Amino acid sequence: MNKLYLSVTLWVTLLCLLGGCGRLSGRMPSDEFGLNDAPIRLKSNSNPPLNSYYYFTEAQLMMKSGEVEQAIAFMEQAIEMDPQSALLKRSLASLLIHQKKPAQALELVRSALASDPKDAEAWILLGRIKQDQQQHDEAAKAFESAIALSPHRQDVYLVLGNIYMQEQRWDEALHTYQTLIQRFPGAYAGHYFMGKIYAQKGQADQAESEFRKTLQLAPDLQEPRFELLKLYQAENQPQKVEKIYNEILEMSPNNLRAAMGLGYHYHQTGQKKKSDEIFENLGKRSQFDQNVIRKLVQLYLDPKKYQESIVILQGMLRGSPENGDLHYLIGVAYSGMDQKAEAIEHFLKVGADNRFFENAVIQTALLYQEMDAIDKGIQYMQGIIAARPNIPEFYLYLGSFYEELEQFDKAGSTVMKGLALDDKDARLHFRLGVIYDKAGDKEGSIRQMKRVIALEPDNANALNYLGYTYADLGRNLDEAERLIKEALKHKPDDGYITDSLGWVYYQKGDYKKALAILEKAVELVPDDPVILEHLGDAHLKLEDKQKAVEYYRRSLKQQKNAAPQLEEKIRKLTGENKP
User: Fold this and answer.
1) Which helix (H) or strand (E) holds 59?
2) pTM for this structure?
């Protein structure tokens, strides 16, 4: 679902409804309070008048001072005095919404509406509750009722329109905003959102017109200008793009989004000198202003706009060539582009005193592993550990390189050095368990996996590994089933864990159940040789030799190394010399 996000400025008019303020919700101070089940002693004078107005007034005073528990207690007392008051019920419901007690709030709101179905404020509260519960259809109906009863509330139109936009009900959203601006000609937010809708529907001329109307009513807004930029970029109108960027920067010279966008625009249109100037200035600024890095990540790296990221970062590095943050980020971008050598080149330039140093080391190790450059990886990690011997995670990656070379003694001793630094590192225990398993030490592997589960009871990989080990050994099969089912709770669509459960039933002799589960595992992971062989074994037990051979052959095609046992299975079933 496309989410259409709103600018901070344009959301101001929505805050009363979404966050609660004034008569809409009785906005509370930002501090969080917990409610106890025990009765609350009311703070009051010794001889309070016995009427609802007194308790309501006391509740208002408590709200202003931030004593929400007291406010709720006074409001409840007021309702006892006047149980038919829709105002009191709404006020208490608003407090309960703030305290994240929607069920109680909903009951009060419904009671208020039962007393007075024409209470627009109660309909608004109902809409808020339903919106928080992601029941958008019901929320929309509540806000529609509120508008019908109280058409002067601009904020309700905006929230209703936004719900329709979230649900991609474009025509209903458009009608809502059209009604808004008919009733309130100065409601610039209505024009803005109409522009967003027209843009979404591919009606560029109408979208441009609405964004322009927004700016006529609110000339200082920047968000409509960024929306116009999207339209002009899509229509390949570079002069208009440049003009809008410059307008934004004239209004707000420090606008990073506009500066990065204009720099990239200059780069794309061949205006190298102008782009270099912008990017170099951003590079220098990044040395003392962390917002530059944050904005770059938000606008380009997080959305995986790697090519744009590289262009901008290369320019910024000319302004700050020793900036480790920039080298790390451009390394991430190159890695995203699968340009591993270039990524490593920049990761290696991230100094040991940089906040991204450990991440850069790990990224480099992973890239060497992906490149099958195991010897380089070992040499690199040995150097890193010699300089920084107190980081447990580094031993994990060096041990993994030795594991790749099947040097299991070195792999195990390396991982244990990491555990000497932190015996509660579940990742190291898990890796050591895998190493023991590969070295043929099943009992050592079982001990390590039990240790992982003791540290992290919800670790699906360890639960599955231990369960499958038991199943493969043909022992503790009930415990194996329990462990693997627990793993599936956390990863229900994991084909490998599904295969483990199927293998447990196979080992238990329940071949029909095993077959059904193993078929599901193959659907989830179609090309895993072990799962395919397991499915072949299940078919064979059920005396379907043709299917067994089919899956054995599929498994054989996926084998990286020789598989003499599998080849022998096929020969026995087919009588052929070659599998």
Assistant:
1) helix 52-64
2) 0.78
